Amino acid sequence: MTLETQEFAFSSAQFEEIRRLLYARAGIALTEHKQSMVYARLARRLRSLNMGDFSDYLRLLHAPQGEAEWQSFINALTTNLTSFFREDHHFQALGELLPLWQREYGQVRLWCAAASTGEEAYSMAITAVESLGGLQIPLRITATDIDTEVLHKAESATYPLSAIDALSLERKRTFFLRGRGAHLGYARVRAEIRALIDFCQLNLLDPHWPLSGPFDAIFCRNVFIYFDKATQNSILRRFAELLRPQGRLFVGHSEVLNQVADLWQPCGRTIYRLRRI
Ligand SMILES: C[S@@+](CC[C@H](N)C(=O)[O-])C[C@H]1O[C@@H](n2cnc3c(N)ncnc32)[C@H](O)[C@@H]1O
Q1: Is this prediction's pTM over 0.85?
Q2: Looking at ligand 1, which atom is closest to the CA of residue 82?
Q3: Per-residue pLDDT tens over the stretch 53-76
Q4: Chain segment 212-223, per-residue pLDDT in tens
């Protein structure tokens, strides 16, 4: 089927090819209903590349000179919805566990594995400062995502004031700087909080991850929903190797890990720990 009223012709076969490519590169399994979403997101790429149709675009992805376009292709097709203290119960649980891990290991290490624009990693850092007391805390957060565009936003740490609307006045005052002049209407996360986090690109599908454990906690929230069971299982097994014995894995509200029950046992709302043998 081709939707004739659209600016660019986009056939079902082209949609299928895009689904296949995205699954192979990023593990993202798009449902068949996402054809118009894919069209809307990639039409922007076609316009900025001055291309006449999707066949040209697919040819570019397959051509040697198309290698650079792959990142834009992935950036365009990821869904990056996030917010500060999303699913707040996880941050409450993290706040209770951090002092225990600090006593046990000294330095605490956390991994935010689908960080998007950074709100989740900054919420982890704020939780740590509140829980461990003071800004000079023995903590490092590694925050990763496949999408380079969201990582740039995360590193800039600058958000519209509406993004921090729901935070308490105390949190806003303690952890954010209000923009002035050209930055009016924006808030920036304070430097001391930014300094606790290293952002870097990581594709959860890659056989080699550019980081090493052990971590006390892995936040991998609201990304498993895009993966099929086989991909989820393989990532969950790799997570198990990177977590300390008392560590925790935090997943999104609709992500249930019953398929790897031999490794992970639930210990709270969408929180998991390694199963003791
Ligand atoms: C819906 S956001 C979730 C953000 C945040 N974890 C939260 O729960 O608010 C999903 C994120 O997963 C990232 N993602 C998708 N596929 C990925 C992959 N293969 N490797 C790493 N990150 C991926 C996307 O780029 C996106 O930023």
Answers
A1: yes
A2: 9
A3: 999 999 999 999 888 999 999 999
A4: 999 999 999 999
Domain enclosing residue 132, as ranges: 89-274
Q: Confirm whether 4 is domain-assigned.
A: no
Q: Which of 65, 78, 105 is nearest to 217 (CA)?
A: 105
- Identify the CATH number of the domain in which residue 73 sits: 1.10.155.10
153 pocket-lining for ligand 1 (C-beta < 6 Å): no
Answer yes or no: is 1 within a domain.
no
What's the gap in Å between 50 CA and the centre of ligand 1?
A: 29
Residue 22 has pLDDT above 60, yes or no: yes
Is the residue at 84 inside a domain?
A: no
Determine, yes or no, domain membership for 6: no
pLDDT band at 29 (very low <50, low <70, confident <90, very high): very high
Residue 270 Cβ < 6 Å to ligand 1: no
pLDDT reported for residue 1: 47
One domain, residues 62 and 93: no
For 108-131, the DSSP string reads EEEEETT-TTTHHHHHHHHHHHHH
CATH number reported for the structural domain that contains residue 231 in this entry: 3.40.50.150
Q: Is 145 a catalytic residue?
A: yes
Instruction: Check whether residue 204 and residue 233 sit in a common domain.
Output: yes
The contacts found for 202-206 with CB under 8 angstroms, 24 or more apart, are 202/113, 202/144, 202/145, 202/146, 203/25, 203/26, 203/146, 204/27, 204/113, 204/114, 204/146, 204/235, 205/25, 205/26, 205/27, 205/231
Substitution candidate for ligand 1 out of 21, 87, 116 with most atoms within 8 A of CB: 116
255 and 148 within one domain: yes
